[in-house]
């Protein structure tokens, strides 16, 4: 784990004043003092005068908003950087446009051993089909190409790349999934040099910092990225200014020896994308009932309850977090059954104290929600998934039918049950976009799943810290780490998802701190500065 940039001078004492500070310590605060990398004081403009003489720097906020920095609780940093700096098909509107972009990228990168790309989604194209191998061979001039679908759970590849992977030269002309996909991914990523990898990681962390993100949870693992990728990222984040990086390594454990290896890698848990199943877009999320658009198919189960129980027990006994990737209702049932079995063995209090995690957790039922609350499981979720694929005519509805699709991502029910929420992007699956993520949760396509902007903001700030076992951060109160962002924002309001929220909470007399207006169509706040541990890691030019 990397908790703060190294090789820098001790942070100075800074007084910020003349703005709005989002803090439960004082809902009307306009000023804040930062000392030795922590928040020292939050209060009113008049009281700030007493701190001015002792400050090394006084910052006039000029009306800007100061909030805790965001935490993105699920990121693939190197893949994000490669998408930012390489071939990105996420905005293509047709198959033909995607092939044109592949062709142009190949022409612009004649010296690359293997071409890498990301983001195609046939469900968004009028052709409604994936690029064929022959089309990709033509577009690349016969060169090796690895091209992941938007959900990163399937991919297409050229003949030249498949020929490098034993046993896959004659693979059917269908997207690669499961073990075949993992084998091709390992071959493709092995061509990325350490220098290219570090450049991609820097690009991703710079983008995160520019968006007011002060920490990320890197979800690494043997089926996603190599050990060198994780250890290199943690070393880079420790040596250079930027967001904090908390690393997870998704490898199943059965004993204390495995836990020791997790710690040796610098990870804080055997969690993240430890796959219980796949994804809905690739028809690999594990379901109780078949897909509506693929009768007879129920997805892929990668773990059984016994394996889940063994992993959770080993992690709990070793004092590290366990976690799983689970999207389909059958996969979530498996995880709950396994965690409950571990609780029967070790006692529910020990399991709850472990703050184990479930990533994505989309097809929840009232029963599995209750189990999450009972077992103290954190739901690490991605509201942008609903914004991208929800709705009556979205990908979810096509895969599952409208009735089942409407049950997905029930954030309000999770909060009512007392389930801890941590928000993330799963970047590069959906982009790093914290305010957009808060908006997506507050204006969920299914109205009964909406939460207040305040609740969504908390899940994307303090919720991410709680998900790594820290209750002392992600909020601007004295003693908390000085991880904050400064924003150019419009009017601040207390925004509820609908009229069912008690009216007192939206009344200024309640003393509830305001947040930017995030209604669909409104401009999102623009980041002016991001500070981590009292050190500036991003400043907008001319700021």
TrEMBL record:
Keyword entries, A-Z: Hydrolase
Tree of life domain: Bacteria
UniProt-recorded Gene Ontology molecular function terms: hydrolase activity
Keyword Hydrolase belongs to the record: yes
Domain Amidohydrolase residue range list: 57-538
Keyword Hydrolase: yes
E.C. code: 3.5.-.-
Pfam families recorded: Amidohydro_3
Signal peptide: none
PANTHER family with a match to the protein in the record: IMIDAZOLONEPROPIONASE (PTHR22642), PROTEIN LONG AFTER FAR-RED 3 (PTHR22642:SF2)
Protein's name according to its UniProt entry: Amidohydrolase
Lineage, broadest ranks: Bacteria, Bacillati, Actinomycetota, Actinomycetes, Kitasatosporales
